[in-house]
Request: fold
Amino acid sequence: MSTPGPGPGPLATVAGALLAARVRSIAGSVEVLGAAGARSRIEEARASFPGRKLVLFYWIEDVLPMMVADVHAGGLLDAGAGEIRFACDDSLGGRVAESLLSRLGRRTLLLRWRRPAERIRDLQRILRSKEPMGIAVDGHGPYGRVGDAFPRMVESAGACAVPVAVVADRATRVRARALLAVPRRGARIAVAVGPPIVGDAASGGAAPFQSALEAARDAAARDALGAAACGASGSLARW
Reply:
């Protein structure tokens, strides 16, 4: 289910359907590490900052491993936070993601990116809602970096931002507009959730806050990579 607006369109709908079928076909064959820890850390973040909007953030490369793990684990990121709504923009890649998530039974939020006035209205609407959300923060490049708009969004909402990293030890990497990681059958997928970062707790301006967000996500990725490599969820760091 998505927010009101134009549908994904024929190409994005077909691509999303194919990806959803691939995700479901892989999900039964993988091993997922860190799912219980991820849920408990999200619950801790929600309990530590009651009343604040919870925003899970990750890279585009995390999305397909995350969805495979989500199908395998039966709701990977929802515990204690309510159902996560995933932000998708109106680019072709965003519309494909919207179609994929909808077919997997996930709710989405449309963020119109091409027109600044519409983008501002959508951001204001999203920030007014206290529903927890997930968002790929490198969606318009540079990839593997927190986009400039995200720190401002977190600060203006006084939100609780939680870094998530999901990696597969065996994946096919596809370079489209962005780098996608498609887990292979029998892959080991590790999930790591880092400590929450509260927007209005930042000091020193936007650049240090942006760097702090990137450092938190990179630390979660190191935990996930270590767990995937050694096959032990105990290697996932706690905070």
Q: What stands out?
A: The chain is about 45% helix and 20% strand. The chain has one domain: 10-235.
